[in-house]
Amino acid sequence: MLDTNLKTQLKGYLERLVRPVEIIAYAGDDAKSRELLQLLEQIREQSDKITIKHGDVAGARVPSFALTSPGEDIHLVFAGLPLGHEFTSLVLALLQAGGYPPKVEQALIDQIRGIKGNFRFETYYSLSCQNCPDVVQALNLMAVLNPCIEHIAIDGALFQDEVAERQVMSVPSIFLNGEAFGSGRMGAEEILAKIDTGAGERAAEAINAQAPFDVLVVGGGPAGAAAAVYAARKGIRTGVVADRFGGQVLDTMSIENFISVTHTEGPKLARALEAHVRDYDAEIINGQQAVKLERISEGFKVTLASGASLTSTSVVLSTGARWRKMGVPGEQQYINKGVAFCPHCDGPLFKGKRIAVIGGGNSGVEAAIDLAGLVSHVTLIEFDKALRADEVLQRKLKSLPNVTVLTSAKTTEVTGDGKRVTGLTYEDRISGETRSLTLEGIFVQIGLVPNTEWLKDTVSLNARGEITTDLYGATSVPGVFAAGDCTTAPYKQIVIAMGEGARASLAAFDYLIRLPAEEQAA
After folding, report:
1. What is the pLDDT of residue 517?
2. Using an 8 Å Cβ cutoff, are 414 and 329 in contact?
3. Would you say 408 and 384 are in contact if contact means Cβ atoms under 8 Å apart?
4. Closest CA to 287 of 267, 305, 309
5. What does the pLDDT look like over 192-222, one tens digit per residue?
6. Local structure of residue 314 (DSSP, 8 states)
7. Cα 404 from Cα 383, distance rounded (Å)
8. Which of 10, 119, 222, 328 has the greatest number of C-beta atoms within 10 Å?
């Protein structure tokens, strides 16, 4: 199960255990239970501080296991085998249950410990989901720190009956005390904001108390991180405000064209970006969405959705982009109920089912190829008369027996029964005929749209909503610069976004040192 190299790494990590860890296994005679016991035994062999007990399977999910420590009141369970992306979650949970201090700010630890009430969280994840570990790790940490909080991390692919009963059609999906709580990537701060009354108000007060910045970067993706590093290195007061640090990179499964790094994964790169920014004296304000930019006497004011605001002498906009939607009836209604955007995350939930992929570019064809190995049948729908993906991908797609390709097809409606997707209708653009497909899932892969709607009355945008910039990353407003996927810069690539961010930041510094002395003083 664990190879020699992984065992060696695990042994090194488990040497950090401060107190004993007790694993309580709930296993039957099935193959998955035997695999679980094998995994747990291999973990136990790596540390003399770990013991395994067998619990009563009556009423328990099988296979599953709980982590605790003698004398501690910890309620943390993994249902299934947390391998793949969740193996890191397991290692962190072992360390935290064993008393190793978490690498988070003390203010967050204090907030978690101060929560009162009864909170039973259940998170459904898939082993191929790169978004799920953030949620699982956040709730595991909360369960270790606060006895009022219980967390059960559930492999949705292994507990299909539950997934069907609870109509889980995207991961991560979180339930609190039996009711749907949220879906998609969340950190501890976002979860706490939903259960800790007054947390939002306290966060807004702290933001309003921030001193003015010299450079404020709006957006925390590759462009924003590069801009923050280059600004902070100049010794000027630098801030980063982001809805979620890492941006679109967090939703990227595999990265193999980042020069000098032969392979990495989006969440891993995002963590590295944040760590690099934090190495400098830059203020990161996460979980906050900008909604307004305006010029003031001191420079600029950025208002956030929470009502708080930040001021800065200059601004670098790096708000990135998001998945483009089809814009047809039924799509919005059935998002996370059969309409999905991440095949790696949600694909396992559609095992053995019929699905459609919308889009014939590289992303769409790659998604169809990946999903064909899981589902019973894939229908790829392309608006144009031919696929636009690379020829090598098209050859692979055509070799798959359970894939149908429809070109010159315009999706016109997503249909469902009120609870989940049941199909879609499309127009044959050649014959004009309207046709229907019976489906359980639809994966939309038709490109990106820039996150710039809030800027339409502030800076110049092109017809696609991208921020117009010059050779220095300057926008139509002096003192405001922009970089990355939200701009007119061609080729939306991570390495290009980083270069754009560095350039915009250097241009912002150049702008600052050329300001009249009285404006700098203001």
Report:
1. 60
2. yes
3. yes
4. 305
5. 989 998 888 888 999 999 999 999 999 999 9
6. E
7. 14
8. 222
- Eight-class DSSP state of 90: H
Rounded to an integer, what distance in angstroms lies between the CA atom of residue 23 and that of residue 39? Answer: 12
Q: Nearest-CA neighbor of 83 among 19, 16, 10, 174?
A: 10
Q: How far apart are CA 286 and CA 291, in angstroms?
A: 15
DSSP-based three-state secondary structure for 260: coil
Do residues 157 and 127 lie in contact, with contact meaning Cβ atoms separated by under 8 Å? yes
Task: Kindly report, residue by residue over 469-509, the tens digit of the pLDDT.
Answer: 999 999 999 999 999 999 999 989 999 999 999 999 999 99
Nearest one of 374, 377, 376, 378 to 365, comparing CA atoms: 378
Distance (Å, whole) CA 516 – CA 498: 30
Provide the CA 407 distance to its chain's centre, in angstroms.
31
- Beta strand pairing status for 441-444 and 339-340? parallel
Contact between 231 and 508 (Cβ < 8 Å): yes
Q: Which amino acid is at 31?
A: A
CA distances from 342 to 153, 335, 357, 364, 474 (A): 20, 12, 11, 11, 33
Cis peptide bond prior to 172, omega within 30° of 0: yes
Residues facing residue 293 across a β-bridge: 302
Residue 426 forms beta bridges with which residues? Answer: 411, 435
Q: At what angle do helices 188-195 and 199-208 cross, to 10 degrees?
A: 120
pTM of the entire predicted model: 0.80
Nearest to 76 by CA among 175, 173, 153: 153
- Give the position of tokens 């270790």: 144
Nearest alpha carbon to residue 177 among 163, 160, 162, 195: 195
Contact 469, 452 (CB under 8 A): no
Length of the chain: 522
Q: CA 195, 197, 199, 200 torsion: positive or negative?
A: positive
Q: For 101-118, give one letter per residue: b (16+ CB within 10 A) or e.
A: ebeeeeebbebbeebeee
Q: Per the structure block, which two tokens stand in for 139?
A: 């709730």
Task: Tell me the three state secondary structure of residue 82.
Answer: coil
Residue type, 14: L
- Residue 361 phi/psi, 5° resolution? -85, -170
